[in-house]
Amino acid sequence: MSDKKNKIELSVEKRKLAGRQVKTLRKDSILPANIYGRKIKSLAVQVDLKSFLPVLKEAGETGLVELKVKGEDKTRPILIHNIQYHSVNDQPLHADFYQVDLKEKVTSKIPVELIGESSAVKSRVGILIQPLNEIEVEALPTDLPEKIEVDISKLENIDDSVLVSDVKLEDTVKVLTDTAQILVKIDPPAKEEEEIVPPAEGEEGEEGKAEGEEGEKTGEGKEAPEGKEGEKKEETKGESEGKDEEKKEEKPKE
Predict the structure, then answer these.
(1) Shared domain check, 81 and 18
(2) For the chain, how long is the longest CA-to-CA vector?
(3) Does any domain span residue 30?
(4) What pLDDT shows up at residue 209?
């Protein structure tokens, strides 16, 4: 790897192992990779992980890297693409090296880096949201920016925002992302949810009161009093027996 002002260099060698066999490479801290690109034949390569990590940190996925393949006389200009990471330790498992033509434009997604400090956030007037973390651009490989800096110090009030159209880039770089999209914005602070206090012991909640009132209306949950219908039946029976006695006492005169 060279000084940042000069070319970034990385040495690799051709890879013979493929498929499940690459696991043996990873155990030895060797990263499997592939070189691909327009009008070139794909080539399987491998690189020492310790050599690759600092290059990745410096170049990212937008910096041009001079790739030296062991056994070849000329270096290949490449961009690092499609890195696969381990789900637990975040170590790279595989990478693609996209070989470019220095005279042909390429498309790439450039990371957005926020600089400065928003007074709205500092004074807790609002919160900062960032819908976009990268902007897609088109340019010659040598003209691709490493990152796009966005100054948020001018965001002072709710709804203040920075759009893609507000970003200033070199004339050699064409923005492909919709320029009307919001990069960063100040939103109102999130409202705290009201705490629901349970009723004190011995007190009924509104739901309990409602159920009780409903029960009183329907008669549910209460012992039913003796019905009037039963009383009427008893009275009718008594009246009937009394009338029978009266009939027995009244005898026809001889």
Answers:
(1) yes
(2) 154
(3) yes
(4) 53
